[in-house]
Amino acid sequence: MTSNARPADRLPDLYTLELLVAVTENGSLGAAARRFGISQPSASARMRTLERRLGVRLLERSTTGSVPTAAGLVITDWARGVLDQAHALVEGAAALKARQEDRLRVAASLTVAEHLVPGWLTVLREAVPGLHVGLQVTNSLHVIEALRAGEADIGFVEGPWIPRDLQSAAVGRDRLVVVVAPTHPWARRRRPIAAAELANTPLLLREAGSGTRETLERALAAYDGVAVPALELGATAPLRSAAIAGSAPAVLSDLAVREDLAEGRLVAVPVADLPALDRILRAVWPRGRELPEGALHLLHAARRRPGA
């Protein structure tokens, strides 16, 4: 279906995205409406407008209430990312307005940024209370590009290789896990799946250039790499949601799915004839360039609170 609406007219407003996230977090549309201090009909109208703009049904409506659909859960994860970026924009603008002289520019791959950097920043603020940190969240390849372009003082990556023009220091370890929904046939197997079967199966994967994708492709190089993905995205959260919904197997960081595995939303699938999908998490910076004091403190914080 074609539309004559301008691109800006199709964009959802942030308030409605916050309302959508609140529906998932509070368990119902009515509870979300009360949280925002609006009537349920008003909240319902906003959700219907959002569904029309996106062309996706977000809520399953019944006489007992409204709950997110499987697609709604994926959109909600994306909405969280948009809201995080919006909050980052506001915080960045405030930092520019205040003209803070003490600043540290950090670029981190998605897994590291989501699961480890917040703890490191807590330690950093205790050591350097007045330091302003600008965090660029991207994939490992773009972290390297940001360092080369002088757009970051220090980076954190999860890829299996470090270019020769960068220095590095290990800050932790991580491993990739093949996960499926409990209803998936692989979840009921008594024996590990073969590495060749994994290589030939369309998977839920991160985009090319991410450390997660590169680690998996190297591990499956003997089997001609990975098959055409069932879904390929530049974010972990929607892939995780799609795996929980049973769309296809996913290969994700243990850091990202640990809670889902513990609570039974996902099942880990062992793979035979495949080297362990372990990887070292590293801090990186341009070779020959002295790290600024703030970056040294952050590196120390990362070593004090290493990855799993």
Automatic annotation (TrEMBL):
Lineage: superkingdom: Bacteria
Protein family: Belongs to the LysR transcriptional regulatory family.
GO molecular-function term, one example from the UniProt record: DNA-binding transcription factor activity
Stretches assigned to the HTH lysR-type domain: 12-69
Protein name, UniProt field: LysR family transcriptional regulator
InterPro entries in the record: LysR_HTH_N (IPR000847), LysR_subst-bd (IPR005119), WH-like_DNA-bd_sf (IPR036388), WH_DNA-bd_sf (IPR036390)
Pfam families linked: HTH_1, LysR_substrate
Keyword terms, alphabetized: DNA-binding, Transcription, Transcription regulation
